[in-house]
């Protein structure tokens, strides 16, 4: 099963533009066969516009032809043409055009809401802002707080999707390691063993140890003349 960005919309396009079987479409898009049949019948994703996986780089025409020629064939997603391209390392702070600098608080708000695991230092380096600005956005003391709306930095043109994914993945990995370490260091003595608890509940009161419980006559005997 391939990891498709818009599975239902892709399925709509494949149903409308190819002779692939429901099983092949379902397998490629990560959907159930009956769901694909529902799309073909108009019961599911009605009026949804199809998305061409070929123009999106997720599938090739050759792969579709293979599937159309063999109903048992399972389509393979095309390899990304940009994922393996190494990104040049930047030196120093990122330069942001003046026209886009006002968008940085929106990007900061997006990180605070969606990825709190990303550190202020990472945000600062990625979009070229200051830690003071990040703090002001976080505690809502920024001069333009009432107009700040969370928008991802890729949409704002402050970084690329590859750069954003790299920062988020590093932050997630670091958080997992910190949580794992905290779990190890936080292990205490644990609960008392069941047999110890039972023994404690059955302990004998030292005032009554070695004898029978006092009765009413014993208690009031001291008050008789």
Structure description:
There is one protein chain. With 225 residues, the chain is mostly helical. Among the domains are: 7-69, no CATH class; 98-182, no CATH class. It has eleven helices and no strands. The chain has helices at residues 7-17, 22-29, 33-41, 61-69, 98-101, 104-114, 120-127, 131-138, 161-185, 194-201, 216-220. Helix 1 (7-17) runs antiparallel to helix 2, helix 2 crosses helix 3 (33-41) and helix 6 (104-114) packs across helix 8 (131-138). The longest helix has 25 residues, at 161-185. The model is unreliable at 203-209 (pLDDT under 50).
Please outline the helices and strands:
Elements: H1 7-17, H2 22-29, H3 33-41, H4 61-69, H5 98-101, H6 104-114, H7 120-127, H8 131-138, H9 161-185, H10 194-201, H11 216-220
Helix pairs in contact: 1-2, 2-3, 6-8
Q: Could you write a compact summary of the structure shown?
A:
With 225 residues, the protein is mainly alpha-helical.
Instruction: Give the integer mean of the pLDDT values.
Output: 78
Number of strands: 0
H/E element string? HHHHHHHHHHH
Class by helix and strand content? mainly alpha
Q: For the terminal residues, how far apart are their CA atoms? A: 96 Å
Number of helices in the DSSP assignment: 11
Gyration radius (Cα, Å) is 33 Å
The percent of residues in helical segments reads 40-55%
Tell me the β content: under 5%
Structural shape: elongated
Residue runs with pLDDT of under 50 for 5 or more positions: 203-209
What characterizes the major β-sheet?
Answer: none
Region (Disordered): 180-225
Pfam families: TrcR
Protein name: DUF1013 domain-containing protein
Organism: Henriciella barbarensis
